[in-house]
Automatic annotation (TrEMBL):
<dbReference type="InterPro" id="IPR037163">
    <property type="entry name" value="Spermidine_synt_N_sf"/>
</dbReference>
<feature type="binding site">
    <location>
        <begin position="155"/>
        <end position="158"/>
    </location>
    <ligand>
        <name>spermidine</name>
    </ligand>
</feature>
<keyword id="KW-0745">Spermidine biosynthesis</keyword>
<feature type="binding site">
    <location>
        <position position="106"/>
    </location>
    <ligand>
        <name>S-methyl-5'-thioadenosine</name>
    </ligand>
</feature>
<feature type="active site" description="Proton acceptor">
    <location>
        <position position="155"/>
    </location>
</feature>
<keyword id="KW-0620">Polyamine biosynthesis</keyword>
<feature type="binding site">
    <location>
        <position position="162"/>
    </location>
    <ligand>
        <name>S-methyl-5'-thioadenosine</name>
    </ligand>
</feature>
<comment type="similarity">
    <text>Belongs to the spermidine/spermine synthase family.</text>
</comment>
<dbReference type="InterPro" id="IPR035246">
    <property type="entry name" value="Spermidine_synt_N"/>
</dbReference>
<dbReference type="InterPro" id="IPR030373">
    <property type="entry name" value="PABS_CS"/>
</dbReference>
<dbReference type="InterPro" id="IPR029063">
    <property type="entry name" value="SAM-dependent_MTases_sf"/>
</dbReference>
<feature type="binding site">
    <location>
        <position position="86"/>
    </location>
    <ligand>
        <name>spermidine</name>
    </ligand>
</feature>
<protein>
    <recommendedName>
        <fullName>Polyamine aminopropyltransferase</fullName>
        <ecNumber>2.5.1.16</ecNumber>
    </recommendedName>
</protein>
<feature type="domain" description="PABS">
    <location>
        <begin position="2"/>
        <end position="235"/>
    </location>
</feature>
<dbReference type="Pfam" id="PF01564">
    <property type="entry name" value="Spermine_synth"/>
</dbReference>
<dbReference type="InterPro" id="IPR001045">
    <property type="entry name" value="Spermi_synthase"/>
</dbReference>
<feature type="binding site">
    <location>
        <position position="62"/>
    </location>
    <ligand>
        <name>spermidine</name>
    </ligand>
</feature>
Length: 275
């Protein structure tokens, strides 16, 4: 008997993969969580029936959340990751020696617990002495920490359930206030094929708060449509003005110094969304 999982990405479209084993399937205090082993993508974390990360393609997302913003800021010493309990973004943040402290705030401790057990190649950095892990509400953490961080990264699920507040203008205003005077933030902002309205809404809200706003993309096979967007809001530094020759070569599989600015070159239909 074969077991297949389908993420219904719209009412009429989904992505399907063959499952070898189910490690965990439970309802936490916040969401339905499953950890499974797939034939094609290795171990995979699912939240509310949506693919969050897999062993095979996780590096794209985690590198592209972390490195463009950290190489845009000249001295990112204090970093906050909201969500991201799997630890992948933290792993990439730790590749930057300037970072003195990285704080991870995830509302669901079960995500952290099971990621450490079943996704050790992703979650290994959570034990690093530079990292503080808090099981808490990221929205409230930002509200309570004014003028604290150089860089804030929002590694959230889609805007449903506990992540709904992380896609609001009030949240972006809170991020602005939690950043230092030259701070930058970045958030995953879903895909332009099925969530065009969301990208437009986020772009409009962030532009009302931050003077510099840039959108960039990456290809992530297990995310809806494969084409994924990220939105960066900055008080001072423009990622398009970074000297690529000054970006060091680090241990990555997707991000490179040459890709830094190239990622901000958008297909025309995505450009049109955010005009």
């Amino acid at each position: 008997m074969e077991l297949w999982f389908t993420e219904k990405q719209t009412e009429d479209f989904g992505i399907t993969m063959k499952i070898k084993e189910t490690y965990v399937s439970e309802k936490t205090d916040f969401q339905d969580l499953a950890m499974v082993k797939t034939e094609e993508f290795g171990n995979m974390l699912l939240l509310d029936g949506m693919v969050m990360t897999t062993e095979k393609d996780e590096f794209v997302y985690h590198e592209m959340v972390a490195h463009p913003v950290l190489y845009t800021h000249p001295n990112p010493e204090q970093v906050l990751v909201v969500g991201g309990g799997d630890g992948g973004v933290i792993r990439e943040v730790l590749k930057h020696p300037q970072v003195k402290k990285a704080v991870l705030v995830d509302i669901d401790g079960k995500v952290i617990e099971y990621s450490k057990k079943y996704l050790p190649s992703i979650a290994g950095g959570l034990e690093d002495p530079r990292v503080e892990v808090l099981v808490n509400d990221g929205f409230m953490h930002i509200h309570d920490h004014k003028n604290t961080y150089d860089v804030i990264m929002v590694d959230s699920t889609e805007p449903v359930g506990p992540a709904a507040n992380l896609f609001t203008r009030g949240f972006y205003q809170g991020i602005y206030e939690a950043l230092k005077e030259d701070g930058i933030f970045v958030a995953q902002t879903d895909n332009p094929w099925f969530k065009a309205d969301l990208i437009q809404s986020v772009n409009k809200d962030v532009k009302e708060v931050f003077p510099i706003v840039r959108v960039y993309t990456a290809n992530i096979p297990t995310y809806p449509s494969g084409l994924w967007t990220f939105t960066m809001g900055s008080k001072k530094y423009d990622p398009l003005e970074v000297d690529e020759s000054a970006i060091p070569e680090i241990d990555t599989k997707y991000y490179t110094p040459r890709l830094h600015k190239a990622a901000f070159v958008l297909p025309k239909f995505v450009e049109d969304l955010i005009k």
